[in-house]
């Protein structure tokens, strides 16, 4: 029970800070920019739009790289050696302190993922389809009908609806799967940074994690017949779950969903164990930097 309360306090501290605030403000600005062409379209056609927008933001390798770079930025307070943490270690002990930080990383990633999904539809407030169906606008754009797709193309839309996603998932299924995967991928990156920072320092942890995220461009530029095989080792690329059933020259681009979940959960468990083992022996160097 004490550990749960401690994780809750850590989560609040990790969310109510300038880095998380900056991430959300930047995401809101991007949402307004991405949604603007569709706002004009639904106003012109006087039709509501689906509330499941976030997965289609992520169906772009450029947005995926930008999004997870922001996640790395918000987690760049690793290895949590700010001076105020010194008293927490004294009160709780090293193992409980490490578990509290790990739990805080997970809950911060969950909160940022959910808030991002909400911000992606904020510009459409009052014009959303309040049911678990895709609706006319999404189907019209995804099917390539000229009255909508031509308008979006001329408006330089940054994202589009994908027909295979609409026929494979309901809005609730796709959004739930996207939230789950993004939370686990973000937690994976956060724990990778925490682990590396305990062994090699913060600068190395941030550089390696950012380089790992940029591997999404390597996957994207791999030939279609090899892309799925390469993607097995690059979890950030899996955020493009809206393209799960979209063929590229006859080939799928993502691993099975079961593999993604097992890989992420196993990696998170292993890194949690390694962090707890390392924390028992590492020498803490406290700093006065704000969290």
From TrEMBL:
Parts of the chain that traverse the membrane: 12-34, 54-76, 97-125, 174-196, 203-220, 257-277
Keywords, alphabetical: Membrane, Transmembrane, Transmembrane helix
Protein name in UniProt: ABC-2 family transporter protein
Organism phylogeny: Bacteria, Bacillati, Bacillota, Clostridia, Lachnospirales
């Amino acid at each position: 029970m004490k550990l749960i309360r401690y994780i809750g306090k850590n989560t609040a501290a990790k969310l109510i800070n300038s880095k998380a605030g900056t991430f959300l403000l930047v995401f809101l600005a991007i949402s307004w920019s991405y949604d603007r062409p569709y706002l004009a379209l639904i106003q012109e056609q006087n039709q509501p739009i689906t509330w499941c927008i976030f997965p289609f933001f992520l169906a772009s390798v450029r947005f995926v790289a930008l999004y997870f770079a922001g996640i790395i930025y918000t987690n760049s307070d690793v290895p949590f050696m700010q001076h105020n943490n010194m008293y927490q270690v004294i009160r709780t002990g090293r193992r409980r302190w490490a578990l509290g930080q790990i739990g805080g990383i997970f809950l911060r990633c969950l909160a940022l993922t959910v808030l991002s999904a909400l911000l992606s539809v904020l510009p459409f407030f009052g014009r959303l389809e309040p049911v678990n169906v895709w609706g006319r606008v999404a189907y019209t754009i995804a099917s390539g009908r000229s009255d909508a797709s031509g308008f979006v193309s001329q408006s330089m839309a940054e994202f589009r609806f994908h027909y295979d996603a609409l026929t494979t998932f309901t809005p609730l299924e796709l959004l739930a799967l996207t939230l789950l995967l993004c939370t686990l991928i973000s937690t994976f990156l956060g724990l990778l940074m925490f682990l590396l920072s305990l062994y090699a320092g913060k600068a190395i942890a941030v550089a390696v994690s950012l380089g790992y995220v940029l591997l999404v461009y390597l996957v994207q530029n791999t030939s279609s017949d090899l892309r799925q095989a390469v993607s097995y080792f690059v979890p950030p690329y899996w955020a493009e779950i809206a393209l799960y059933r979209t063929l590229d020259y006859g080939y799928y681009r993502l691993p099975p969903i079961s593999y993604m979940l097992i890989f992420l959960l196993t990696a998170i468990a292993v890194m949690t164990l390694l962090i707890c083992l390392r924390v028992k022996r590492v020498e803490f160097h406290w700093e006065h930097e704000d969290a």
